[in-house]
Specification:
Elements lengths: L18 E2 L16 E2 L5 E2 L7 E2 L3 H5 L3 E8 L9 E9 L9 E6 L25 E6 L30 H22 L8 H15 L4 E6 L1 H12 L4 E7 L9 H24 L1 H4 L5 H17 L7 H8 L1 H4 L4 H12 L4 H10 L8 H13 L6 H12 L6 H8 L24 E5 L7 H10 L4 E5 L13 H13 L1 E2 L10 E3 L20 H11 L2
Parallel strand pairs: 7-8, 7-9, 9-10, 10-11, 11-12, 12-14
Antiparallel strand pairs: 1-13, 2-3, 4-5, 5-6, 6-8
Length: 539
């Protein structure tokens, strides 16, 4: 989804009280000959084996990873036609452990680079990642894959138009800006724009499986990575070994409805942050009442709409604080920025925006792919009046993010590639998967996790009760992380309960202590892993 959280882990002992769901499947042994992946129209495609070599990324190289490319059809309906290259990385299973096959990792987005996530296995508790070959990959169009999309690397350059279109000129400026970006996407990228739908990424994942010579794959998917995980388990259920889906997307809401769901959920998660700021007034000095803290934040946004401070206007102000609604890790740092700005010092907010939104050639790669996927995955309203009416209606109850989300997705109104229908999800034949979500997750609301649990009737859901963190596994919460480890190591899952509810309830990722919180680090855990996932997701 729009921004994807980063994670932190802490090692812990395997929790007791878990039970196996059915019998543990046999580990997927390598095949002597690479299996084929199905192309559309009944044809097949057999990718060549990966030619592994040195990784250009120094951290991957230092971790002992090797890198290569998987050649896949641009159009799976024409498997003998033009090929594109999917960048992959691999850290092999540790010697002396029971081999469990390849574990693909996707950080979400769509548009997030997963190449460096081959390192993720080192942070799974109880050495439960040791038996897998951890496979990072950049989905088609992303990062080191070829071609790599870019439309206009300066699109986020500040100061952008005011976030609330209170005048016709502001509305027109945003509409023109989005339309030009869509036009530049066609001019600068060509034919691949017609082949970025999630269905293609699902097929690419199976091509990676085939190129690795494995009969099955595992997946650790975050956010949008849970969507393609559901798609893969629906299309290739016999190829699924162990899937962990964290921050679960409701596939039935792709994608315009999903953004409206987000707007309402972000309003609630931001209120949680404002309440935390008020509770810690001794640190931030912004007031002891949540309503006062919230009101002052919106007052500053209104002031910036009229008169930006440096490179911070109302749009930049909103984007800087958006991550407070995604997860708790940055709450202390963002509280400090808010406190400084309330006293007239916007230097920290400006630096935060510029750091998080670099400009220049290719800087928009993640955003370009995000649009390329979402604008063609499903149907979007084709008339601006529908967008406008929906946004103003929802703005009345969810003013924090409604217009920001509208402008973020607006290039879909003029997107130069045909819209399709959402990926079909059917979990009737899919094996058990581990689903993870927090109750007040704003990016992927908890209702989506429940819907996915219903759609995949063998799967099991862990709920971080009351939490606001998106994709919060491996953050040091033993109740959750130990069950991840048990599943990955031995195929053990908690028992599935009856009813429309989570199967296990755990504590959420804890809110930080403002007296000990560090910039961009979780209350507990390993900041190196946090940084790894931030890099992967462009944060």
């Amino acid at each position: 989804m729009r921004r994807i959280t980063s994670l932190v882990t802490a090692a812990a002992v395997i929790a007791s009280g878990a039970a196996a769901v059915g019998s543990a499947a046999a580990a997927p042994a390598p095949s002597a000959q690479a299996p084929v992946t199905q192309a559309r129209g009944g044809g097949t495609y057999t990718p060549p084996s990966v030619r592994w070599g040195t990784c250009a990324n120094s951290r991957l190289a230092d971790a002992g990873a090797e890198c290569g490319k998987v050649l896949v059809p641009l159009d799976y309906a024409k498997p003998r036609g033009q090929k594109i290259a999917i960048a992959v990385s691999r850290i092999k299973a540790k010697k002396g452990t029971r081999y469990l096959g390849p574990m693909l990792v996707n950080p979400g987005g769509p548009g997030g680079s997963g190449l460096t996530l081959a390192r993720l296995g080192a942070w799974v508790p109880d050495n439960a990642g040791d038996g897998y070959d951890w496979i990072g990959f950049d989905p088609r169009g992303v990062g080191d894959s070829e071609p790599s999309l870019s439309c206009d690397g300066n699109y986020t350059e500040p100061v952008r138009p005011a976030i609330i279109p209170r005048t016709a000129s502001i509305e027109r400026a945003w509409r023109d800006k989005a339309a030009v970006y869509a036009k530049d996407c066609r001019k600068n990228n060509g034919a691949i724009l017609n082949h970025l739908r999630s269905d293609n990424t699902v097929r690419d994942m199976d091509s990676i499986r085939a190129a690795l010579g494995s009969k099955k794959i595992s997946l650790y998917g975050f956010s949008y990575g849970t969507y393609i995980g559901q798609g893969y388990a629906s299309r290739y259920p016999s190829h699924v070994y162990r899937f962990v889906l964290d921050g679960v997307v409701d596939a039935s809401r792709a994608w315009y409805p999903a953004n409206q769901d987000q707007n309402a959920a972000f309003e609630n998660s931001m209120r949680e942050w404002f309440a935390w700021i008020a509770k810690n007034d001794a640190t931030f000095g912004l007031g002891t009442k949540p309503s006062v803290v919230r009101q002052r934040w919106f007052e500053i946004r209104n002031e910036l709409a009229k008169k930006p401070r440096g490179k911070v206007g109302s749009s930049e102000w909103t984007d800087v604080f958006l991550s407070a609604g995604y997860y708790v890790y940055d709450w202390v740092h963002l509280g400090q920025l808010y406190s400084q700005a309330a006293q007239g010092d916007f230097a920290g907010v400006e630096d935060e925006y510029l750091t998080s939104n670099p400009t220049g050639p290719g800087a928009d790669n993640g955003y370009a792919v995000y649009l390329g996927v979402q604008c063609t995955d499903a149907r979007w309203p084709t008339q601006w009046n529908r967008w406008r009416q929906d946004a103003w209606r929802q703005h009345r109850t969810a003013p924090f993010e409604t217009w920001g989300n509208t402008w973020f997705n607006l290039p879909c109104l003029n997107w130069p590639a045909p819209q399709g229908n959402p990926t079909k999800m059917n979990g009737a034949k899919a094996p058990a998967m581990l689903l993870i979500a927090e109750t007040k997750d704003a990016a992927t609301p908890f209702s989506g996790a429940l819907a996915t649990r219903h759609r995949f009737p063998r799967s099991v859901l862990i709920e971080g009760v009351g939490g606001t963190t998106h994709s919060g596994s491996l953050s040091g919460v033993a109740c959750t992380d130990n069950r991840v480890a048990a599943f990955l190591k031995d195929g053990i899952l908690p028992k599935r309960r009856s009813g429309n509810r989570a199967d296990v309830q755990c504590d959420p990722v804890p809110q930080p202590d403002p007296n000990v919180g560090l910039r961009r680090s979780a209350p507990t855990g390993n900041p190196e892993l946090r940084e790894l996932l931030q890099q992967a997701q462009g944060l």
